[in-house]
Structure formats: structure tokens, C-alpha cells
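Reopening this one. Same input as before:
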Amino acid sequence: MRERSYSKMRTSRALVLTVLFVVAIGAAWWFTHRASSTVGDTITVYYTKADGTTLAPWQVTLGPARDRASVAFYAATQTVAGPPSNIEAVRFPPGTRVRAVDVTDAIADVDLSREVAGSSPEGSFAEAAEFKALVWTLTQPALGVTSVKVRVDGVRVATLPGGHLELDGPLTRSSF
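Same output, byte for byte:
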């Protein structure tokens, strides 16, 4: 009799563990796929105001592609292009463009053209402001990205030539 009770307990535990495993897999799937389903018709793109620290959002209308990688590329491109010319903002160096954006899990890997390394009269002030806008744009909840890695012309660099902002590790909102 005791053996039968023990067998039932083992079966019950196995069933409970199986149900918990299935729930965990379902929750993991939901968390990784919910970002792509929450992108609407617009996305928020940030720019840094001329004071170098204040972020300002502006809404940009999306085209037909709504997958996470396409939206991330478009958002990064809009950030690098900057707000309309009549708005005072810190801007990326002229000619800077986004070559690619790869999104894996919660990391966006952004490849910028070599013009990003161009000198800016504001130095570290401008570098931090430029990348702050890029990171805040790409880490908004709709994209499901929490950190941004940067490459310049396909190469991971420790810093830009001015050496003001470390780029060899992932950047997060708390980096600024």
C-alpha cells in the first residue's frame, strides 16, 4: 500500500513539473515575441537637444515593414539623420549613415559609416549626446532591445578617435 502511494506522489510531481516546464516555455516565447506585435504605425525617435542632455521624442511613421529588424534599422537611420533642420539638436557628423542593424535577442548591433568618427567641435559633449539619442531610440519597449553595440565600417572599435565614449561594450540607457 505504501509503495502505491509513493508511486502516485512521484507521478503527481512529474505532472506538476511538466506543467511548470510548459508554462515556462510559453512565457519565454511570449516575452520574446511580444515586441514585434506591439509595433504600431509610428515609432518614437529621440534626439538630444542642443543642451546635450535633454532628450526629445518625435514620432516617425513606419512603412509597410513591421518586423523588428526592419523597424530597428529605420529607427536608427532616422536618429542618425536627426530631427528637421529647424530644430536645434546635437547631430551626428555630416555624412554618417547606418550601414546595418542586426537584432539578436535583446541586443541591437549597429554598424555606422566611418563618417561617425569625424571631428565635432563639441567633442565628448556631442559624442555622448549622439549616442544617447541612438540608444534611447533603439531601447524603447516596442523593439524589445535593452542594449546597443556599435561598429564603425564593420569593425568593433574601443572609442571614436576623440576617445570620449567607450564603444567596446554594449550601451544601455543607464550608460548616459
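So the earlier flakiness isn't reproducible anymore. For the record, The chain has two domains: 1-37, 40-175.
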